[in-house]
Specification:
- Keywords: 4Fe-4S, DNA damage, DNA repair, Glycosidase, Hydrolase, Iron, Iron-sulfur, Metal-binding.
- This protein is α+β, with helices and mostly antiparallel strands.
- The protein is built from 14 helices and 9 strands.
- The chain folds into 2 domains: 212 residues, Endonuclease III, domain 1 (Orthogonal Bundle), CATH 1.10.340; 119 residues, Nucleoside Triphosphate Pyrophosphohydrolase (Alpha-Beta Complex).
- It is 41% helix and 13% strand.
- Strand 7 and strand 8 form a beta hairpin.
- Helix 1 crosses helix 11 and helix 2 runs antiparallel to helix 8.
Length: 345
């Protein structure tokens, strides 16, 4: 049986109708691949459509303000992807005359472009034999060949990349790469894969050895860190509030939030933090009430944020105050965005 031909044939019969499959424009392929990292297609598709409408070319993206890029990205998560996207667009315009590099090795030099994205662009846009290896591909290969080497180990990453190169269709790398990713997403799913109607079921070693549900193997994740966020939502008599821009290399860099008081643990009352609040918001005359009685738990990949919003009312004028009517124009984390909608400024 020819593994690559079977995968491609399945793809032609079953592929989903997605806009980035109707083009070989490296800009649009790049956009789709960056957006779909750690994001489901159903969630990423509306963002792709918004981005391509707002920024139809790499020049448009390069010329945009970072705040505009982050605002359009809002809710998609992993915001370093958006910042890298913007940086790389500028790099391509300034240093590559607006043209994407046409080889896998050259694409790797772009910020935010790793092995997977470089392989996808090189194969789909330029027909280079550069096999992709993402979560879907790991799953298909580990099950089909019954390999229990952890996919996130150094040995596993090397082993599966070599195997992917062995099975890629050298005559049609573009369709093969899209086919094996689609096959993993639709047919060889993480849970309850359709093994009975799978075109590879007769030669699948994992199925033969009844190990499909055990594969792929992955090393345990890093321990999740707990953090306690207390957002100070200032509301003045002049219908203004305060927002601050997150700095540093931590989560949500470049996005806006309400002034933050981070504590070591959960707090029932904020009265003990009067001096800290005064220092953060630069106001002395205010009253504080808790908005959500139960902490909201916002889960990130390696952090769980136990969050409380505190409404801080004041008659004082605010230095650098922002009109409540403008608050929705700022790029904010989805946690803050959801609160803004619920509070209904």
């Amino acid at each position: 049986m020819n593994f690559s031909k079977e995968i491609i044939q399945w793809y032609f019969q079953n592929k989903r109708d997605l806009p980035w499959r109707k083009t070989k424009d490296p800009y649009r392929i790049w956009l789709s691949e960056i957006m779909l990292q750690q994001t489901r297609v159903a969630q990423g598709l509306p963002y792709y459509e918004k981005f391509t409408e707002a920024f139809p070319t790499v020049y448009d993206l390069a010329n945009a303000e970072e705040s505009q890029v982050l605002k359009l990205w809002q809710g998609l998560g992993y915001y370093s992807r958006a910042r890298n996207l913007h940086y790389t667009a500028k790099d391509i315009v300034e240093n590559y005359n607006g043209q994407f590099p046409s080889t896998y090795k050259a694409l790797l030099k772009l910020k935010g472009v790793g092995d997977y994205t470089a392989s996808a662009i090189a194969s789909i846009c330029f027909d280079e034999v550069a096999p992709v290896v993402d979560g879907n591909v790991y799953r298909v290969l580990s099950r089909y060949f019954d390999i229990d080497t952890p996919i996130n180990s150094t040995e596993g990453i090397k082993k599966f990349k070599e195997l992917a190169f062995e099975v890629v269709d050298h005559d049609d790398p573009a369709n093969f790469n899209q086919a094996i990713m689609e096959f993993g997403a639709v047919q060889c799913k993480p849970q309850n894969p359709y093994c009975i109607i799978c075109p590879l079921h007769e030669s699948c070693e994992g199925l033969k050895n009844q190990r499909v549900d055990m594969l792929p193997v992955k090393l345990k994740k890093t321990k999740v860190k707990k953090r306690w966020f207390n957002y100070l939502v200032v509301v003045s008599n002049a219908s203004e509030t305060l927002l601050e821009k997150r700095k540093g290399k931590g989560i949500w860099q470049g996005l806006y939030q309400f002034p933050l008081l981070e504590t070591e643990t959960s707090i029932e009352t904020i009265a003990d933090y009067q001096s800290e609040i005064e220092e953060i918001i630069k106001i002395k005359d205010f009253s504080v009430t808790k908005f959500n009685e139960k902490e909201m738990i916002h889960k990130l990949s390696h952090q769980h944020l136990y969050t409380t919003f505190w409404i801080v009312e004041t008659t004082d004028s605010l230095k650098n105050g922002i009109s409540l009517q403008e608050i929705r124009t700022y790029p904010v984390p989805i946690l803050i965005g959801n609160f803004i909608e619920e509070f209904n400024f």
